[in-house]
Amino acid sequence: MAYHSGYGAHGSKHRARAAPDPPPLFDDTSGGYSSQPGGYPAPGADVAFSVNHLLGDPMANVAMAYGSSIASHGKDMVHKELHRFVSVNKLKYFFAVDTAYVAKKLGLLVFPYTHQNWEVQYSRDVPLPPRQDLNAPDLYIPTMAFITYVLLAGMALGIQKRFSPEVLGLCASTALVWVVMEVLALLLGLYLATVRSDLSTFHLLAYSGYKYVGMILSVLTGLLFGSDGYYVALAWTSSALMYFIVRSLRTAALGPDSMGGPVPRQRLQLYLTLGAAAFQPLIIYWLTFHLVR
Length: 293
Prior knowledge:
It contains ten helices and two strands, in the order H-H-H-H-H-E-E-H-H-H-H-H. It is mainly alpha-helical. It has a domain at 142-289. Strands 1-2 form a two-stranded antiparallel sheet. The chain is globular. 22% of the residues are buried. InterPro entries: Yif1_fam (IPR005578). Has a role in transport between endoplasmic reticulum and Golgi. One of its GO terms (cellular component) is endoplasmic reticulum membrane. Keywords: Endoplasmic reticulum, Golgi apparatus, Membrane, Protein transport, Transmembrane, Transmembrane helix, Transport.
């Protein structure tokens, strides 16, 4: 009993003495910077300090202003070079089409023999956009026809189990290269023949790109009716395109002023027009015969 009583007295004496509080695991930073060594700033205080320090630093302001001026100058240079090589306003003119124009133009490309008036219409010495003038060239139909031709080529090769990404890419690049070469040849011919006209690269690209419509019809007919149908469609579309090119270049594109020059110049213009028209069936055949078997 005495031993039990003594143990109890010692135990109560130890409980009466207060133990020191353990150190906190994290410092209290709710009031800003901690007064203890190694304290961290309050959330958001470092961001505000950095922003204030950056705005108050003259060198930082100069650097920001210099960077903004460089970016603005670079943007102006890009726009200047773009307008130097490609006129956006002129490019918009060739895409100013609507559904009615596209339908009538496709019919004109396939059946051009009944069309009478081939002159491009003007309003205050400015040519009317394609949606208001059927004779005006456009780039919408050539662009969409080129894409359709590439897709149709892939389908034709797939039906014949000859499809591969390399072959499809070769068809697209070959068709594009032929058109570029044709446009360059026409530009060179116009330069050598000293033809005075309003023809631009966009005009020649539009007239050269209309052949994709005939190529699509020829391939579709070949897939449906075999090689005999292909050659019949090739003959029809080629003759229609030749007639369209001759009438368009002679009347709509070159204009009546260019026909009133000396006789040798008129002959050069005629030869150039006939050469451009006669070249169309060869390109159509070269780009489509391997798709129909």
